[in-house]
Design a protein that fits this description.
It contains ten helices and two strands. It is mostly helical. A two-stranded antiparallel ribbon has the order 1-2. The chain starts with a helix and ends with a helix. The chain has a domain of 176 residues: Up-down Bundle (Methane Monooxygenase Hydroxylase, Chain G, domain 1). It comes from Chlamydotis macqueenii (Macqueen's bustard). This is RUN and FYVE domain-containing protein 1. It holds the Pfam family RUN.
């Protein structure tokens, strides 16, 4: 029971932190940095959720209880996360597993893949059982609900600088002042502030669960009132209470019953509306999945075209080098031809001089 209460409290805190973060980010209208208070509080709450129910591992140094262990599994289950793991390992200022886990969460949020990576972990709970207790948040339904809520963070842009951040020694303390204005949502109201910006499917399912619980509570109240009414009628018969008092009590019961019936009908209407919204959101989700597959196919074709162009460029560069070599050889041959031509012209000029001398000597001899 204690673990169930902890999971429920952490899930409610995560809902509030995501709601405040999305609302403040959309109102701010710019890229978020690491100094943004709602973003800091979101990471603190997420860290508490990932730490819930962690098993303590004994090492030579002492006991180790870090949430970075489960996050390292993502690299094996999802090859797309290898860049994050490599970046975290290449940060020399990170000395502890807690700091590496926080850096991993920062990078996953900037990639807008945080929900996808955690969903991969939840799909392999047999691996998570090595790190978490059976009643941990990541092993129960609350973990799936939180992962669904994290999809809504894909609408915000974050630019978090990891260099210079002291992630090892940060103390994660939840600042409840950011959520005081949202305390009225815990009295049975549906959390209407988190709209379709969050993960539509999981969030609508959670709303349906809350509505079903509310309907069950109202039905129990109606049954209790009926039992109370029957007891009052028995007491009227036993103690011979006057008809006027009985009539007043019956009127009060009817008024309360009428109010509960109205609440019951309103809740059912709201449940039907939420079911319609859920169907629409599922259709929209299927369209988004289709668009995503088309984009992946287009990216693959583009990569193939790029590789072909690169191969063509390499071949053209080789041909250019061969042409340059041929030109250089022709240049050397032309220089050699010019030198030989110059020597021949010099020889011809000398021969012409000698011929002129011989002609003059011949004229002298003739004379």
């Amino acid at each position: 029971y204690h673990a169930m209460e902890e999971r429920a409290n952490l899930m409610n805190m995560m809902k509030l932190s995501i709601k405040i973060l999305i609302q403040s980010a959309l109102s701010l209208g710019r890229t978020l940095d690491s100094d943004f208070p709602p973003l800091q509080q979101f990471f603190v709450v997420l860290e508490h959720c990932l730490k819930h129910g962690l098993k303590v591992k004994k090492t030579f140094i002492g006991q180790n209880k870090s949430f970075f262990g489960p996050l390292e599994l993502v690299e094996k289950l999802c090859p797309e996360a290898s860049d994050i793991a490599t970046s975290v390992k290449n940060l020399p200022e990170l000395k502890t597993a807690v700091g590496r886990g926080r850096a991993w969460l920062y990078l996953a949020l900037m990639q807008k893949k945080l929900a996808d990576y955690l969903k991969v972990l939840l799909d392999h709970k047999h691996l998570l059982s090595e790190f978490y207790e059976p009643d941990a948040l990541m092993m129960e339904e609350e973990g799936a609900v939180i992962v669904g809520l994290l999809v809504g963070l894909n609408v915000i842009d974050a630019n978090l600088c990891l260099k210079g951040e002291d992630l090892d020694s940060q103390v994660g303390v939840i600042d409840f002042s950011l959520y005081l204005k949202e305390t009225q949502d815990s009295d049975g109201k549906q959390d209407g502030g988190i709209t379709a910006v969050l993960d539509q499917k999981h969030y609508v399912e959670e709303l349906n669960r809350h509505l079903s619980c509310t309907v069950a509570d109202l039905q129990n109240k109606i049954d209790c009132l009926e039992k109370t009414n029957s007891k009052l009628q028995e007491e009227v018969c036993v103690w011979s209470v006057t008809k006027e008092d009985t009539k007043v009590e019956l009127d009060t019961y009817k008024q309360s019953r009428q109010g509960l019936d109205e609440m019951y009908s309103d809740v059912w209407k709201q449940l039907k509306e939420e079911k319609k919204i859920r169907l629409e959101l599922e259709k929209e989700l299927e369209l988004q999945i289709g668009m995503k597959t088309e984009m992946e196919i287009a990216m693959k074709l583009l990569e193939k075209d790029t590789h072909e162009k690169q191969d063509t460029l390499v071949a053209l560069r080789q041909q250019l080098e061969e042409v340059k070599a041929i030109n250089l050889q022709m240049f050397h041959k032309s220089q050699n031809a010019e030198c030989s031509l110059q020597q021949k012209t010099e020889a011809i000029s000398s021969f012409e001089g000698k011929t002129n001398e011989m002609m003059s000597s011949m004229k002298q001899m003739e004379e």
